[in-house]
Design brief:
- One of its GO terms (biological process) is signal transduction.
- The chain has 341 residues and is mostly helical.
- 62% of the residues lie in helices and 2% in strands.
- It has eleven helices and two strands.
- The chain has a two-stranded antiparallel ribbon.
- Strand 1 and strand 2 form a beta hairpin.
- Helix 10 runs antiparallel to helix 11.
- It is rod-shaped, with a radius of gyration of 59 Å.
Length: 341
């Protein structure tokens, strides 16, 4: 018979792979009672004839396909498990013993058994839909795996074969779960390592960015540029306003100084014009002087020598004006001013 390899590396007849593929494509594994419900004989024979001619009919009943797969094993010249004696199967009670027992089969029978066990495990994985557990699927396959002439012996042997098949099915399902868990763990580990590598690369980029934007060395020609914050700009604006107010005050002081000088010049001119021994007005003249004369005032009483008194008064006033000139020429630095809130 023409053989081909399935997805798990088993070399089996191509007709089996063709029926298996069609069964899976039509969602036969989810059909309730798959491999347990027997189709009508007339329909099964019709599909069998077409398959023997190499024709795969469209929309085949999945139960017909399942029945033909069992018929293929049943109609073999010798059963797949006929190489094992009933006594050997009867003495096989554990999973380890079952595994060691099937290793005694020939390569062809071993490949067919492995393919059938994988098929039955696929059915059990859909137990929620098809209501077929490991015991049920093993029960319907067991009579097709051996051939005995004595019906009573065949029935008793089929029970032992059913237990053997069930053990092998459960072992296959457990190995699939372990393999799936291992793949999930590997993917999770790779994902975790991938995130760690990304975080490490991100940290490296941040460190490189910090080094590139760090302070310039002594050998660098370019000086770093600093940006002015909004607070700095507000402070500069406040200082500018203070300087402007200060200079306006200086202008007012300059005007007051010029007016004061003019008053002194007027007094001096009147003194030069007035008679030598005459007295001036009986009013008291009080003129503020500098800090050394600020606490006292210059008074001119009647009977004093007005010329001498006025001369002293003018001299002191001129000294005050000169001090005011020095203050105007040497203004207080803006940074020493009290900045208003």
């Amino acid at each position: 018979m023409q053989c081909s390899y399935d997805t798990r590396g088993n070399s089996v007849p191509t007709i089996l792979l063709l029926m298996q593929e069609t069964l899976y494509m039509q969602s036969g594994l989810k059909a309730e009672g798959i491999f347990r419900i027997n189709p009508e004989n007339s329909q099964e024979e019709h599909v069998r004839d077409q398959l023997n001619r190499g024709i795969v009919p469209d929309n085949i009943d999945v139960h017909i396909l399942a029945g033909l797969i069992k018929a293929w094993f049943r109609e073999l010249p010798s059963g797949v498990l006929d190489g094992l004696s009933p006594e050997q199967v009867l003495q096989c009670n554990t999973e380890e013993e079952s595994v060691e027992l099937v290793k005694q089969l020939k390569p062809t029978e071993s490949a067919l058994l492995n393919w059938a066990i994988d098929l039955m495990a696929d059915v059990v994985e859909q137990e929620e839909s098809n209501k077929m557990n490991a015991r049920n699927i093993a029960m319907v396959f067991a009579p097709n795996m051996t051939q005995m002439s004595d019906p009573l012996t065949a029935l008793m042997h089929a029970v032992q074969v059913m237990n053997l098949l069930k053990t092998l099915i459960m072992k296959t399902l457990r190995e699939r779960e372990e393999a799936e868990a291992g793949r999930d763990s590997l993917m999770s580990s790779r994902s975790s390592n991938g995130r760690t590598d990304e975080e490490y690369e991100s940290q490296q980029e941040m460190d490189t960015g910090c080094e590139s934007t760090g302070p310039a060395s002594d050998n660098d020609d370019e000086q770093p540029h600093y940006s002015t914050s909004s607070e700095d700009r507000d402070e500069v604006g406040s200082l500018s306003e203070i300087e402007e107010c200060f200079f306006r005050q200086l202008d007012k002081n300059e005007n007051a100084k010029n007016g004061f000088r003019k008053q002194l010049e007027g007094i001096l001119c009147r003194e030069q014009v007035s008679p030598g021994g005459g007295s001036t007005s009986s009013e008291d003249y009080r003129v503020p002087l500098s800090d050394r004369t600020a606490s006292s005032c210059v008074s001119m009483d009647e009977g004093e020598d007005s010329r001498a008194t006025n001369a002293r008064l003018i001299s002191a006033a001129i000294e005050d004006v000169d001090m005011l000139d020095n203050v105007v020429e040497s203004p207080v630095p803006p940074e020493q001013l009290c900045v208003p809130n």
